[in-house]
Amino acid sequence: MKKFSMAIIAAIIVFASFGASAQARWGAVAGVNISNLSWNQDLLSTDPSVGFQVGVTGELMFPGIGFGVDASLLYSQQGATLHMGDFPVWANDGIGNVRSYHHYLDIPIHLRFKYTNLNGIESTIAPFVYAGPTFAIKLSHSHTDALEYPAMAFGLEGGIGAELFRRYQISVSYTWGMSYSVQTVKLDGYSAHNRNLAVKFAWMF
C-alpha cells in the first residue's frame, strides 16, 4: 500500500510539472459496443451482443511532441448470449441460452499520440492512436444461478481515430479483458474474459 501511495504521489508531481505547458480539454463521449466473451477453454459457444457507452472524457496533450494522456468515465453495457443449454450439465437444470448482460463503470487511461505537425492539415483532420489499461467496476448484471460475477474487471485497450476541426473525435478501439468477468458455478475454474470492439464519438469543449 505504501509503494502504491508513493507511485500516485510521483505521478501527481510529474503531471503537475508539465501542467503549465500542457493543453487540457474535456468533452462528452458516446459509442456503440460489439462485445463477446472469450472462455479459458474451448467448450461453451457464445454470440456477440451490441451495447453502448456514454460518459465524459478528457485529454492532456503536450504541444510540439504530439504525446499526451487521456482518461474517461463511462457507463458501458456489454454482454453475450451463452449457449449453455447445449450441455447436459446445465440443460438438466433447465438452463438454455442465457443472455448475459453486464453494466460497468469503465475508467480507461491511455497514452495518446496525435499527429499535430501536418503543415496545417491538422486544423481539419489530425489522426491519433492510443493504448492503455481500462478498469471496469461492475454496477449490475443479468442474473442467472449458473454464473458468478466479480465486482471488477481489468483490460487493455488500443485504438485509432481522427480529430476533426479541432473539436470532434471519432475512434475505433478494441479491449482485451485480462481478468475474468464471469465464471460458471458448476465447473470450477471455467471463466471468460471480456472482448469488446467500440466505435466512439467525442465532442471536445
> What low-confidence regions span 5 or more consecutive residues with pLDDT below 50?
none
Beta-strand segment tally: 9
Largest sheet: 8 strands, antiparallel, barrel
Distance between the termini: 37 Å
* Overall residue-averaged pLDDT value: 89
Radius of gyration in whole Å, from Cα? 20 Å
Structural class of the helices, strands and pairings? mainly beta
Instruction: Please work out how many helical segments DSSP would assign.
Output: 2
The proportion of strand residues reads over 45%
Shape: elongated
Can you list the strand order of the major beta sheet?
Answer: 1-2-3-4-5-7-8-9
Helix/strand order: HEEEHEEEEEE
Account of the 3D structure:
This protein has 205 residues and is mainly beta. Helix content is 10%, strand content 64%. It contains two helices and nine strands. The chain starts with a helix and ends with a strand.
In short:
The chain is mainly β and 205 residues long. The protein is built from two helices and nine strands.
